[in-house]
Amino acid sequence: MPDNTTEHARAGINAKLPALQTWPNQFQKYVITTRFPEYSSVCPKTGMPDYGTLTIQYMPRKECLELKALKMYLLAYRNLGIFYENAVNKILQDIVAAAQPEWCVVRGEFTPRGGLTTTVFARWPGLRATNKASKR
């Protein structure tokens, strides 16, 4: 198997996905948690499928995520070649851009591969990862 390349590392990060839509929030200071136990994508190196459960938690300000649009957005990852570390961070960035919440956490718990399980956790503000590829 060839070494990991820059193309592997950047795969899927700048993919065009369905738009995340929002609706006007009517309340303050509460938390929304959405679980998506059917996440899947494709490893950009091996072409093998990746599966997991995504948990999205945020405190809305002026906008809430529209759930059907969120579902269509997440389903678009099914055929996308992207490392799951990148997927979690991309999802976080896209949610923050669309809804501008007080804070947001995205957690991906991925099924075992070769005896290893991986959990990826990203939050905003705070441990926010930046996309080096989009700055070039």
Give a count of the beta strands, DSSP E runs of length 2 or more: 6
Task: Enumerate how many helices there are, as a single number.
Answer: 3
- Note the beta-strand portion: 35-45%
The number of domains: 1
Radius of gyration from the alpha-carbon trace, in angstroms: 15 Å
Overall outline: elongated
* Derived structural class: alpha+beta
Helix content, binned percent = 10-25%
CATH superfamily: GTP cyclohydrolase I, C-terminal domain/NADPH-dependent 7-cyano-7-deazaguanine reductase, N-terminal domain
- Give me the CATH architecture, please: 2-Layer Sandwich
* CATH overall fold name: GTP Cyclohydrolase I, domain 2
List the helices and strands and how they pair.
Blueprint (H helix, E strand, L loop, with lengths): L5 H5 L11 E3 L7 E11 L6 E11 L3 E3 L1 H9 L8 H16 L3 E11 L2 E9 L12
Antiparallel strand pairs: 1-4, 2-3, 3-5, 5-6
Tell me what you see in this structure:
With 136 residues, this protein is of the alpha+beta class. The chain has a single domain, classed as 2-Layer Sandwich (GTP Cyclohydrolase I, domain 2), CATH 3.30.1130. Helices cover 22% and strands 35% of the residues. The protein contains three helices and six strands; from the N terminus they run H-E-E-E-E-H-H-E-E. A hairpin with a 6-residue loop joins strand 2 (32-42) and strand 3 (49-59). The longest helix has 16 residues, at 84-99.
